[in-house]
Amino acid sequence: MNDFAPYLERWGLVAEGPPITRRSSRLLRVRYRGEAAMLRVSTPEEERSGTPLMQWWDGSGAARVFAYDDGALLMERAEGTRCLAAMARNGEDDAACRILCDTALRLHAPRSAPPPRDLEPLELRFSALWPASDRYGGTMRRCAEAARFLLAHPEAPIPLHGDLHHGNVLDFGPRGWLAIDAVGVLGERGFDYANIFSNPDLDDPTPPVATRHDRFARRLSLVTQAARIERQRMLQWIIAWTGLSAAWFLGDGEHGGAEIDLTIAQLAIAALDG
């Protein structure tokens, strides 16, 4: 609890339960001025860059930020009982996809205030893909080609969540479905929608959802209609994004995740070429 102690005192928090440890952060359920809140203490710079973006969204499409500094974030806590991953695995994948698309639309909506300045450019976000495509070739090379094309012919950049998937959009009860854990990226909105297609299988592939051909085709139809993104461009974003995600997994030695991503990439390539 030592890493939480300064924030418990500074922000007048009351702990509710034991800490939760993740790869990139530690979480603690707390009460803040009588409200259910979550305290997150993180170290990677990637995690911190999304905090000003979460504050900029001001609770519209995302959890409200109560307080933050360079290493910690205090935000409202989800207390609803529904789960998008469970919905996707139990015959409600259409509904889960629509909720994710609706959340993205709310996050991408124009705001009156200027966005944070330190958002990561999408070109930088893709830096892991280039060496991976040279090393592994094959599908990875095709993913890199799609990414290079999209980055060379961009649509107007906007602030993006950067990691929008089933585990990062939660049930906040009366407040509806809201995003958490933004990375904070500046780029074309198709990047956020592409993240939907490999999930929730990247978290747990049993039973498979994302890698099923029928589910992929159905998702493609739903997402392109909801996002109003042309089908060919959405397929290119899926190919590019899955290649980047696979590159990250391969860099960490996690070949199972890379296999899922590359399966989705191959489905998208077949749809694009067909």
Q: Outline the low-pLDDT stretches.
A: none
What is the assigned CATH homologous superfamily of the largest domain? Aminoglycoside phosphotransferase (APH), C-terminal lobe
Distance between the termini: 55 Å
Specify the overall morphology: globular
The proportion of residues forming helix, as a percent range, comes to: 40-55%
- Please, what is the average pLDDT? 94
Tell me what the CATH architecture of the largest domain is: Alpha-Beta Complex
Number of domains: 2
User: What's the CATH class label of the largest domain?
Assistant: Alpha Beta
CATH topology call of the largest domain: Aminoglycoside 3'-phosphotransferase, Chain: A, domain 2
> Structural class of the helices, strands and pairings?
alpha+beta
Query: What's the β-strand tally?
Result: 11
What is the CA-atom radius of gyration, in angstroms? Answer: 19 Å
Number of helices in the DSSP assignment:
12
How would you spell out the order of helices and strands? HEEEEHHEEHHEHHHEEEEHHHH
Largest sheet: 6 strands, antiparallel
Beta-strand percentage?
A: 15-25%
Notes on the structure:
Strand 2 (20-21) and strand 3 (25-32) form a beta hairpin. Strands 1, 2, 3, 4, 5 and 6 form a 6-stranded antiparallel β-sheet that branches. It is built from 12 helices and 11 strands. Helix 8 (138-152) packs across helix 12 (255-273). It folds into 2 domains: 5-76, Phosphorylase Kinase, domain 1; 84-273, Aminoglycoside 3'-phosphotransferase, Chain: A, domain 2. The protein has helices spanning 5-10, 45-49, 51-57, 84-89, 93-108, 122-125, 129-136, 138-152, 190-194, 213-227, 231-251, 255-273; strands at residues 13-15, 20-21, 25-32, 35-42, 65-68, 72-76, 120-121, 158-160, 169-171, 177-179, 185-187.
